[in-house]
Amino acid sequence: MTDHEVLRVFCGPGGEYGNELGVVRDGAAVPGRAERQALARELGFSETVFVDDPVRGEIDIYTPTLRLPFAGHPCVGAGWLLGVDRLVTPAGVVGVRREGGLTLIEARAGWAPPRTLRQYGAAAEVDALEVPPPGEWIYAWAWQDEAAGTVRARAFPGRDDGIDEDEATGAAALLLTARLGRALTVTQGRGSRILTGPRPGGLIEVGGRVVREAAQGVGDVGSA
């Protein structure tokens, strides 16, 4: 049995909602890529993180079907859980800071996986969208208040792995921030909250609230 923790990342202001993240603190217990991929598929979260060095912040990220060099909500969650000021990912070193109950990371837009950013004319149009068939990874968004930088978004991974919609996606919000070149407050999914903003040196900051949901073994996955 492989122990793992469950976090909710990018929670709303009261700790509600957020995207679930599986974290295997003892990455050495699952050493091979094939074994990690199989466990990520078994756990069924949009992403699962394996911690290879908790002091250096070295992590490895998997969806149920593939390994990712970088992803937003796993880095925010792992940064919160490990209490480090940086994470080491295959894409590069991710800065981590904390402020006012939030955990924020700094990363480059070029590290994010490709996403189709699809703008709609109103938040109500985004709310009314049905899940599209598998295909491209779509980040549907609309301004709630352009002057204030508030955005309504939903994320459709387009994968045939049982995850039709992601509750909160840091990498997609990072890409949108890079495109618009301004700070954003994104409400995604049922009510998750993502805060972003450009930083010096071409970096983008992405962050939010993290809540610990559970610690369990693989045999207890259904109780998450």
UniProtKB/TrEMBL annotation:
Pfam families: PhzC-PhzF. SUPFAM superfamilies: Diaminopimelate epimerase-like. InterPro entries: Phenazine_PhzF-like (IPR003719). It comes from the Bacteria. One of its GO terms (molecular function) is catalytic activity. The active site is at E47. This is PhzF family phenazine biosynthesis protein. It comes from Streptomyces kaniharaensis. The lineage of its organism: Bacteria, Bacillati, Actinomycetota, Actinomycetes, Kitasatosporales.
